[in-house]
């Protein structure tokens, strides 16, 4: 049997990883400034994480959601403490797409409406409603296209107002800082007005923090810089540091009923143990502060680079924009300099999404590599 060929692969097979480094079968060391697509938050194979998962699997790896699972309650209370999102309720699932799918479904249950407003260059995942709310026609199958979604340019509050006025919109879904779309972010005024309009027209504001959450921007959630209180916040990626876990934080005005949402694997014991270890390390090692400090250092270094058109993003969710496609540069960074970086929808943008444990010396290593590339 062959693998279904949907991924263009680099010819590297990592077998081991530690903190910000990944190793292949020959022992070659790669600096991971991609974090497996913004997933690695506390560093690869962190001892606290390995211990927590190992101990948990020796006791109880999984049982269904039909019994008490105190680890879910522990995760909810630790999330409240670190995110300051008081009073929200938590529903756990397995991935970012699933988090958004549940968020959209919940919005539709709550408002009894079915249209969604999303934004140009958005990415919300590949399941039914989530992919329909994703601005990429190539990955939307006819079965998904039956969802009613209107795409509006970020910042165009007049069009949002016009769409909401029809009173058929269950949710407005937005990444406060876009991921694969290319790290665009609008003003606090825009996000605040969005919230105000959602309240006015009884639509829910869903903030997708799948990529930007869990400290990646230096704040626990990216939306927190903008002084808003979303109705639903979706999470995944950094939440499990590689262990598949996702979730939504749900405003208390949205009431639960038995069977409204559900999952077999979501919130299982191992996934909770993984996420609890992530939260412990984020706090013990002050990683949000590290993200902000290293980001600052990165920006200072980037400002000195004459070949750079623009630096985008914040925290450790950064993008370097050039005036040429970066595919070749990305390949050279991997194969000549052993550094992983990310790409974006914009072919000229190189994305930097390292573990939040990254240090100045690793940023130096990256800029030294860039310098060599631009000399040759
Ligand atoms: C902002 C955002 N939302 C949702 C998703 C989908 O997450 P997953 O791949 O875990 O389904 C992603 C994945 O890249 C993402 O960046």
Description:
The protein has helices at residues 35-38, 47-59, 70-83, 96-111, 128-132, 142-145, 157-164, 188-200, 269-284, 287-303, 327-335, 360-375; strands spanning 14-18, 21-24, 29-32, 89-93, 115-119, 149-152, 169-174, 204-208, 232-235, 246-250, 310-314, 317-321, 339-340, 349-352. With 376 residues, the protein is α/β, with parallel strands linked by helices. It folds into two domains: 14-45 and 287-375, Aspartate Aminotransferase, domain 1; 47-284, Aspartate Aminotransferase, domain 2 (3-Layer(aba) Sandwich). The strands form three sheets. It has a seven-stranded mixed beta sheet, sandwiched between helices. A four-stranded mixed beta sheet has the order 1-2-3-13. The chain is globular and about 60 Å long. The model has no long low-confidence stretch (mean pLDDT 97). The chain binds pyridoxal-5'-phosphate (PLP). Residues 37, 95-97, 100, 123-125, 175, 179-180, 208, 210-211, 236 line the site of pyridoxal-5'-phosphate. Belongs to the class-III pyridoxal-phosphate-dependent aminotransferase family.
**What is the general shape?**
globular
Helical content (DSSP H or I, runs of 4+): 25-40%
Supply the helix-strand structural class.
alpha/beta
Count of alpha and pi helical runs: 12
Query: Can you list the ligands bound to this structure?
Result: pyridoxal-5'-phosphate
CATH homologous superfamily title of the largest domain: Type I PLP-dependent aspartate aminotransferase-like (Major domain)
What name does CATH use for the topology of the largest domain? Aspartate Aminotransferase, domain 2
**How much of the sequence is in beta strands?**
15-25%
First and last CA, distance: 43 Å
Task: Give the radius of gyration.
Answer: 21 Å
Question: In terms of quaternary structure, what is this?
Answer: single chain
Family: Belongs to the class-III pyridoxal-phosphate-dependent aminotransferase family.
Cofactor: pyridoxal 5'-phosphate
GO molecular function: identical protein binding; pyridoxal phosphate binding; transaminase activity
Protein name: Acetylornithine aminotransferase
């Amino acid at each position: 049997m062959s693998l279904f060929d949907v991924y263009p692969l680099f010819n590297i097979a990592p077998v081991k990883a530690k903190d910000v480094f990944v190793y292949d079968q020959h022992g070659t060391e790669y600096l991971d400034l991609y974090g497996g697509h913004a997933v690695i938050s506390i560093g690869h194979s962190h001892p606290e994480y390995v211990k927590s998962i190992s101990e948990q699997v020796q006791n109880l790896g999984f049982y269904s959601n039909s019994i008490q699972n105190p680890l879910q309650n522990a995760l909810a209370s630790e999330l409240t403490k670190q995110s300051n999102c008081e009073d929200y309720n938590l529903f756990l699932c397995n991935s970012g797409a699933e988090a958004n799918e549940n968020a959209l479904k919940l919005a539709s249950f709550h408002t009894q409406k079915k249209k969604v407003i999303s934004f140009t260059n958005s990415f919300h995942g590949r399941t039914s409603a989530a992919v329909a709310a994703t601005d990429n026609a190539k990955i939307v199958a006819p079965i998904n296209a039956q969802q009613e979604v209107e795409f509006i340019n970020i910042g165009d509050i007049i069009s949002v107002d016009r769409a909401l006025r029809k009173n058929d919109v269950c949710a407005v879904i937005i990444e406060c800082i876009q991921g694969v779309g290319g790290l665009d972010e609008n003003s606090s005024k825009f996000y605040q007005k969005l919230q105000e309009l959602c309240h006015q027209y009884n639509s829910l504001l869903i903030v997708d923090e799948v990529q930007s959450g869990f400290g990646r921007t230096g704040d626990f959630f990216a939306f927190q810089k903008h002084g808003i209180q979303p109705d639903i916040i979706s999470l995944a990626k950094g939440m499990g540091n590689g262990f598949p876990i996702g979730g939504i934080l749900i405003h208390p005005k949205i009431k639960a009923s038995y069977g409204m949402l559900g999952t077999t694997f979501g919130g299982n014991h191992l996934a909770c143990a993984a996420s609890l270890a992530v939260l412990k390390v984020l706090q013990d090692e002050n990683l949000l502060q590290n993200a902000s400090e290293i980001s600052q250092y990165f920006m200072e270094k980037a400002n000195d680079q004459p070949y750079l058109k623009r630096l985008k993003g914040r925290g450790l969710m950064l993008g370097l924009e050039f005036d040429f496609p970066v595919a070749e540069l990305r390949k050279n960074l991997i194969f000549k300099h052993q550094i992983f970086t990310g790409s974006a929808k914009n072919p000229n943008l190189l994305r930097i999404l390292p573990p939040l444990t990254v240090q100045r010396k690793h940023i130096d290593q990256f800029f030294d590599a860039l310098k060599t590339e631009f000399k040759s």
